[in-house]
Specification:
Strand content: 15-25%
Largest sheet: 9 strands, mixed
Structural class: alpha/beta
Order of helices and strands: EHEEHEHEEEEHHEEEHHH
Oligomer: single chain
Helix content: 25-40%
Strand order of the largest sheet: 3-2-1-4-8-5-9-7-6
Radius of gyration: 19 Å
């Protein structure tokens, strides 16, 4: 049997500006996934990590998200890589068996990507699999930066230097249209970082206030002096926007585009008034 560490690696994507998140992220990773069989890499930019058992990878690409990721992939020897983002903290114990099942599925089906979070959900069932479905061509966010097991070679082929994470999701989805199959997704969360109100802890470079409260109580090494906390008014605006986007993504594309245009106009009219009231300012 091939050693799992020779088949897949865990790559945590970050940057020097987010080094304050490394300590709590890896404390939770060790606590919630103590038997992780994969070598753990941190894509850090130029600042090294002192976390035990973590191999720091460096890149001189600066703010070029895709360029940094390409540099990190060149330094990883395994054919598959499990990609995670640094501001998505684990909240519960990881079921290693489910991760193994997803990796085995990727190998058997020669998958380009097996996303571990159903956001968005797969669009087609796979015979014989209750865990994983297919994300068909033409679906929005078919290529996604959410936690996934990637064929390292394919990921490198659809990355283009100079693109941000958001540009990658949009543009790489278009580039992958020529590939009718290969993109899959779990039907339920395999990596448990989904929260009640948010799945990440930082928005616009600031701590989300409720996530700050949740993880601040756990004594995992959070340093709240490094970055600001997002005001509640902006937090509410972000939540409403995500709800609207999720609603739009759940319907066919033509209807989705119409809903997005309508909601965008509504948000532009309503949200300035809501934010003024939440901040205590008068009209």
């Amino acid at each position: 049997m091939i050693d799992k560490s020779q088949r897949c690696s865990l790559l945590v994507l970050s940057c020097d500006a987010y080094c304050d998140l490394w300590r709590p992220f890896f404390v939770l990773l060790r606590r919630e996934w103590p038997d992780c069989p994969y070598l753990c890499y941190l894509g850090a930019g130029r600042v090294g990590s002192k976390e035990k058992g973590v191999i720091t990878l460096y890149s001189g690409a600066g703010r070029d998200w895709s360029g940094c990721l390409l540099d990190y992939l060149d330094q990883i020897p395994t054919p598959y890589v499990l990609l995670m983002l640094d501001d998505f903290f684990l909240r519960r114990r990881v079921d290693g068996k489910l991760i193994d099942d997803c990796l085995l599925f990727a190998e058997r089906h020669q998958a380009s990507q097996v996303r571990l979070i159903p956001r968005p959900r797969p669009t087609r069932k796979i015979a014989g699999s209750n865990l994983i479905g297919e994300c068909e061509a033409g679906v929005r966010y078919r290529v996604c930066a959410q936690a996934s097991i990637w064929d390292k070679r394919h990921l490198g082929n659809i990355l283009v230097r100079g693109e941000s994470a958001w540009e990658f999701e949009h543009n790489a989805t278009l580039r992958a249209e020529s590939q009718p199959a290969g993109h899959y997704c779990a039907r339920r969360a395999v990596l448990p970082y989904q929260g009640l109100f948010a799945h990440h802890v930082v928005e616009k470079g600031c701590w989300l206030p409720h996530e700050k409260w949740i993880f601040g109580r756990q004594r995992i090494g959070c340093d709240f002096c490094v970055r600001k906390t997002l005001p509640w008014g902006q937090t509410l605006a972000c939540f409403l926007a995500k709800i609207f986007i999720g609603t739009a993504n759940a319907v066919p594309l033509p209807i989705s585009n119409a809903i997005r245009a309508l909601l965008r106009r509504g948000m532009m009219l309503v949200m300035p008034q809501v934010l003024r009231r939440l901040s205590g300012r008068q009209k």
